[in-house]
Amino acid sequence: MTVFLFREDAYAAGCEAIVTAVHPEGVELDRTVFYAASGGQPGDTGTLVLPGGLRLAVTEAIHPEGDRGRVLHRVDGAPPEPGAPVVAEIDWDRRHRLMRMHTALHLLSVVLPFPVTGGAIGPEKSRLDFDMATPPEDLAALEAELAAHVAADLAVSAEWVSEAELEARPEMVKTMKVKPPVGQGRVRLIRIGAGPEPVDLQPCGGTHVRSTGEIGALRIGKIEKKGRENRRVHLHLV
Predict the structure, then answer these.
(1) How confident is the model at residue 229 (pLDDT cuts 50, 70, 90)?
(2) In whole angstroms, what is the distance from residue 43 CA to residue 37 CA?
(3) Which end of the chain is more exposed for a tag (fewer CB within 10 A), N or C?
């Protein structure tokens, strides 16, 4: 099992680690700040610094197929040997933009309260697909609502609940096709806003900013029809 440092501190840009194994798909570390591609958020890129100062570019971080408890780092070059100490460093600018976008998509699911059928996160633009028969008519009003949530500088925090608690509150799961991973006894939630009635509270394993004010200005892009009752809504950082 890899220790996911990004889960407790999304702002950690680097860490010391030990190579535990080398696979055809990538290098496995005992601990990492690299987020592995999942939930629509792409894996981090960055660098592994080897003893002596050699730097290996990490082109992608992934989970092995069927195993969300480990992270593999795909490197450009000959990988280090198992047991080697390394320093793992993420491309912080790219990660931070992904954090801003991921949190912004949570807000988009608030201003468009429809079941989510899919999504993808990028450093410049992202999208959510909604089970929505007709597109929204007033995009300016939606953008104003998003801007209000950003301007409110709402706290963003993570917490854990048992799988039984989540099962008792199915309304927290907004995604129709992708369900939170179960089998470990607990599920991570992301809360936006404080108090008993937050602006948003839903299962999510991704990385987020500490407050909505950090997101910055947003613009809703094109809305595409992707099926009889499916609409794809694009969101951009301005």
Answers:
(1) confident
(2) 4
(3) C
